[in-house]
Amino acid sequence: MALSSIKSFTVELDGPADTAFVGGEIVSGQVVLELCRDTRVVSMKVQGRGVATAHWLENRGMNSVYNDYTSKVTYFRKRQHLIRDNGEVTVLPAGRHEFPFSFQLPEETLVTSFEGKHGSIRYWVKVKLHRPWATVRKLKKEFTVIEPIDINTPALLAPQAGTKDKMAQAWYRNFGQVSVTAKIDRKGYTPGEVIPVFAEFDNSTSRSIVPRAYITQTQTFIARGTIKQKRSVVATLCGDIVGARRRETWHGRAIKIPPVGPSILQCRIIKVEYMLKVCVDVPGTSKLNLELPLVIGTIPLHPFGSRTSSVSSQYSVNLEWLRMAIPEQPEPPPDYSSVVTEEEAEQCNNNNAVAPQPADDLSGILERPLMAFVQEFRFRPPPVYSEIDPNPQPLNMRPRCMTC
Predict the structure, then answer these.
(1) Least buried of 211, 286, 305, 319, by fewest C-beta within 10 Å?
(2) Contacts (Cβ under 8 Å, ≥6 apart) of 7
(3) Cβ-based neighbours of 286, under 8 Å, separated by 6 or more
(4) What is the DSSP letter of 5?
């Protein structure tokens, strides 16, 4: 029998079993074929593919006919011949045979591997072995691809804040208003991090409320112009009861991000988005939800911070709704010469004289060490500050009437 001549037929990828690849890297390995006796082979080829698929079935009412919604996006397809079909049969002797292969993933960013209820994003290596007068032997080996998402970018380091209110009503009667104000330090986080939630709950009704916070995941699948969504809660935070006509403040209540997959935002047919929802149940009406967008990344925050994070920390101090103490009169900034030496100031001026890079080419900016941005922010001169008007109005000048 033809099948009995093959003892084993496997695909082995180089590196650890849990290796994750990114765009531009090389996927290599070998096809291992063990034969019990001499075997005739026509050809053997290996193919690497990456495909996103969205698929589900729907029926309307009592109709037994189902509508098929399917959409596919191919990210790469590469083929390599291990034994080329040149019109002649190749005889492989009994024993172990290894056929190495390698191919490079596309340089452009690939979407992260994903498995969902109505779709998937998969990458695999597939081997086909053709023999005369025998069925084609197929072998498939999947591997993981990760899309790098660096949260050390200005957009993901920006603080997120919002406010929302709702009136409690019953039978056209108002029982007061409930308002929620919340803020988080930044938009981008990585799994395992703790999000400090700053929030204020103002309960002007005659009933008690319970504030809560959730981290939700929304999977969106798109096929044939139709959208299918699946929402789930991945983390929860429950606050203390806020009594009638009372106010409650969260000074950085912690909610931890569980080990979830990163955000998927660059695929046309599958998206994975995260949201922080701060909510309360308003008596007599629906739930009051305040949503703050989140991006779950793969590259964690640098320990030494960034210019944007410094700005965000200053911004959080000036928010009135946090009820933080603000000095009535700010202290003047230090003298420029006491902060920056002449050599550093001259170096900063020389650096500022360099022509800026074109807006279309951001690769050089993103590849610069983050410390460069820290130094750029640190060496800037302090703002002009004076308690005395440098151009006072003459005493003998009569104030001008603005209505004349």
Answers:
(1) 286
(2) 34, 35, 36
(3) 166
(4) G
pLDDT per residue as tens digits for the range 138-158: 999 999 999 999 999 999 999
Question: Dihedrals φ, ψ of 314, to 5°?
Answer: -70, -35
Q: What angle do CA 134, 135, 136 make, to 5 degrees?
A: 120
Q: CB of 390 within 8 A of CB of 340?
A: no
Share of the chain above pLDDT 70, in %: 73
DSSP state string for 210-270: --EEEEEEEEEEEETTEEEEEEEEEEEEE---B-TTEEEEEEEEEEE--S-PPPB-S-SSE
CATH architecture, domain 3-145 = Sandwich (2.60)
Rounded to the nearest 10 degrees, the angle between the axes of helix 307-317 and helix 370-378 is 50
What is the tens place of the pLDDT at every residue in 204-236? 988 889 999 999 999 999 999 999 999 999 999
Asked whether 68 and 57 are in contact (CB, 8 A), the reply is: yes
**Token pair of 248 as six digits:** 């409650």
pLDDT per position as a tens digit, 173-201: 777 889 999 999 999 999 999 999 999 99
Question: CATH second-level architecture of 154-326?
Answer: Sandwich (2.60)
Give the domain ranges of the chain: 3-145, 154-326, 332-348+363-383
- Is there a shared CATH topology between the 3-145 domain and the 154-326 domain? yes
**Which residues make Cβ contacts (< 8 Å) with residue 191, sequence separation at least 6?**
257, 258, 259, 260, 296
